[in-house]
Amino acid sequence: MTALHGPDAEDEPSAKRQATLPMLSQVESLTSAKVATAKDECPSTPVDPNISQFTDGAHAAAPAQYAAEERMRSLGLVAFCDALAFAGLREELLRYSAAGVTILAPTDDAFAQVPEEVRTDVRLVRSLLLGHLCTGTFTLEGLKDKECAVAIAGQTHAVYEEDSHTCVGTACFGRTDLAFEGGMIQELTSVMMVLWLVRDSHTEQVWKKSLQPSPVVSTVGGNSNTGTHPPPRTPVFPL
Asked: Could you please report the per-residue DSSP string of 62-94?
């Protein structure tokens, strides 16, 4: 075929040619829980390797703009901070704090009760944390007045009294009304059970019939103090 612009058309700069985007491969098994996996889950959220795992030594301090993390670390709630970094939720928490957020933060010992296969799965850790973050700044009295805590993930946890303890969902409150710039931290003595949507409801066409299978829901977290398996000394959210 004759060139439209003369014989020099093939010598045009390559910048004028249409670029082709490479195909992106799907994320492989999340059970390995690599940093790349966390980035694939939340590409807009950087993972800071300095606060993404437990160590026997001192933990790196959170940057000044992360007021919630700085406050939690000062209170000894290091596991929640490490989980935020592992699941890629640091920037999301920063945005929630701008409008006010209530953090239902389990203690480090509570996180140690969570099975390792959960703690090394980015999707499960993310679902677990979103079930412990609530929009709005609430004191304990405010939660008791509402009789519930509504998580960002959409789950509603009942707030109630039981055996002289104030509870939320499947956990009991520890230290309460721990304020920081942007919200409130309410410590929990155990990790709450959170619903996890495995498969949403959908419509299927089978022969000439339209079927709508029920959604598949699982749970993650909850109190697993059976006394048969002692928790590890330091729970790890790996890179």
From this structure: PPTT-HHHHHHHHTT-HHHHHHHHHHT-HHHHH
Condensed to tens digits (0 to 9), the pLDDT of residues 186-238 reads: 999 999 988 756 666 667 677 777 777 676 666 667 654 333 333 333 444 54
CATH class of 29-220: mainly beta
The edge-to-edge listing of strands for the beta sheet with 156-162 is 148-150, 156-162, 165-168, 171-172
Written as six digits, the tokens of 190 are 């155990």
Q: What own/partner pairs with CB < 8 Å and gap ≥ 24 does 43-47 have?
A: 44/91, 45/88, 45/89, 45/90, 45/91, 45/92, 46/90, 46/91, 47/85, 47/86, 47/88, 47/90, 47/239
Sequence spans of domains, the chain = 29-220
pTM across the whole model = 0.64
